[in-house]
Amino acid sequence: MKLLVIALSGIGDALMFTPALALLKEKTPGVEVDALVMYQGVKDIYERTKYFDKIHYFDFLNEPKMNALKFVLSLRKKYTHSINVYPANRREYNLIQFLIGAKIRGGINYLRSDFAQLGFLNNVRITENDSVHNVRENILLVKKFFNILSEVEPSLLFSLSDKDLLYADEFLRKGSISKEDLLVGFHPGCSTLKNHINRRWGPEKFAELAKLLTDINNAKVLIFGGPDESELKESVKRLAERKNVMSVNTENLGQTAAIIRKCNLFVTNDSSLMHVAASQGVKTYAIIGPTNRHYIHPWKTEYEIISLDLSCSPCFIYSPEPLNCKRTDVKYKCIREMTPDIVFSRLGIKK
Predict the structure, then answer these.
(1) Rg (CA), the chain
(2) For the segment 10-42, what is each residue's pLDDT rounded down to a tens digit?
């Protein structure tokens, strides 16, 4: 039995498959497991689990389509089983799984756009449930796939090396950050694909929140983000105009996770680093607008969802369609009318 885990969505989605992976390896130890990924961050996280025999990396977003097809066909008939990590409601992902040619192909029967996205190409499926977390959807699919009866739901897996932890210690030392300091992490970014930039709380609002935290609580604020979010991080730092607000620049995701682990709390948009913070057991405050909180709330860590709870929310669903606000008064009101004072009041920090 040889399984290919197809994790072509982002870092957060891939991380939310790791509990199902842990359950799979514990309950079916004889299965050989490989992965197919298209983000270096996902490759890094999956290598750290030590659960994969091999990880195939291919940059589907930037490579020519003919090269992508040749690569997919190079994997054909090498696996008895394959599974699409939830969510993967795109015809490209289902077609890739079909072309790879495993006889048993796992996926979700999506409530919306399933047929149009070729979901029927998968032959072992469970029906999507809007009230169920992504982690649990993956666990339920794996349990059906391999007839696992366990009720265990593991934590997210993102292991850090001693080198990562030493890097974080050195970062704090250079920043004159002590254990006595209130250390708050921010992630003002998120994916920009499919118009998801509109899930972001504004950088000027993160800056105002930083001012409140530094002025009232003498906190030290660290601003995190991916390689493509350097300008965003610097914008928040510049607008905050406080010496205790610092931008974090690391060489890899492991170093980032190690520094996040040092934070007392983490304030974030709906993003991959929200799940990285959860994987490190950090208390997480998630500013959620159009997303279904049941899908993506921080898993197995102390957390709070900060939302305006508008009647039109959630409006984001798992499909290839771009995020689109249908309000006629204030577009993306769920995010744009969330004030720094509201967020600060929810953090539970004494003035």
Answers:
(1) 21
(2) 999 999 999 999 999 999 998 999 999 999 999
